[in-house]
Amino acid sequence: MRILSGVFADDRTGRQVTTGTPIALLIDNVDQRSKDYSEIRDSYRPGHAGYPYDIKYGVHDYRGGGRASARETAMRVAAGAIARRIVPGLSVRGALIQMGELGIDRDEWDWAEVERNPFFCPDAKAAERFAAHLDAVRKSGSSVGAVIEVVADGVPAGLGAPVYGKLDGDLAGAIMGINAVKGVEIGAGFAAARLSGEANADEMRMGNDGKPRFLSNNAGGVLGGISTGQPLVVRFAVKPTSSILNPRRSVDRYGAEVDVTTKGRHDPCVGIRAVPIGEAMVACVIADHYLRHRGQVGESPRWPFPRNPG
Ligand SMILES: Cc1cc2nc3c(=O)[nH]c(=O)nc-3n(C[C@H](O)[C@H](O)[C@H](O)COP(=O)(O)O)c2cc1C
Which residue of 84, 100, 179, 252 pairs with 144 in a disulfide if CB–CB is 3.0 to 4.6 A? Predict the structure, then answer.
């Protein structure tokens, strides 16, 4: 990756500093294999974006999906690396918590384990099960989906907006903007629909540090579109890779019915590589809201409020 503008090394301090101009980054795609796609040039891969691209533009780049290729997400990860540095004390970590039907044991969650296995899985035993399952899926010419959880710690309370630009709305939009994502949930998410009002309410008590303490985090760190200071918890579902060896029924761009088999390099579970992408998108949204917050209100009001002001 090359940095084209926006930062320089200050001789006087030996530090890299931003100049205030846009930071331009360039990643050359030096590892493409367009030949892999020549056989299915005119056919639509079921689950891929060729058909709607043709309908909209009259053209689609069949070489690896063109603009629908997740290659562009490399740049999101690069942008996320910058975003992480904008908010002081922010930590954004992601983990693969489900592959197909297989889940993790949340009691075995160990963030250090995420760095130790190729699945970004926080449960060592589950990672072994994922490895065996993925091998079988690959050998059978198929693919499998995944669920990823991203947790952001150190998010200040007060980021977001009440109507336009809600923090949770922006997070959902950013995550849904990642290729192959079909579902996003915040906090308890879809499970909240099954909870009672009592179970779902994140009760509050005063902590020893003079700040309120939430006794649970079903809200996932956002209420009314604004961060509460609790960890932000975002989960998302990634569909199984649509390019698979096993034939699927489709049509071609001339209106004939065909069977499509996709050869070439395709991960049987793109959800694995979606972990750092999810982290990056969450970091970008938080950094964006952090800067907007500063522009909107500067210093937040001092809390708790005096009972008798003035
Ligand atoms: C990291 C990553 C890698 C991907 N690699 C592939 C791939 O090799 N083959 C494929 O068919 N789809 C792949 N996808 C998914 C497609 O880009 C995506 O399904 C396609 O653009 C259609 O868009 P949609 O699924 O978001 O509707 C990948 C997605 C991600 C996040």
Answer: 100
SS (H, E, C) 48-102: CCHHHHHHHHCCCCCCCCHHHCHHHHHHHHHHHHHHCCCCCCCEEEEEEEEECCE
The pTM (predicted TM-score) of the whole model is: 0.96
> pLDDT by residue (tens digit) across 248-294?
999 999 999 999 999 887 899 999 999 999 999 999 999 999 999 99
Element (H, E) at 244: none
Mutate to test the pocket of ligand 1, among 31, 32, 270, 279 (most ligand atoms within 8 A of CB): 270
**SS3 category, 184:** strand
Residue 121, helix vs strand vs coil: coil
Residue 267 Cα to ligand 1 midpoint, Å, equals 9
Mutate to test the pocket of ligand 1, among 33, 242, 250, 265 (most ligand atoms within 8 A of CB): 242
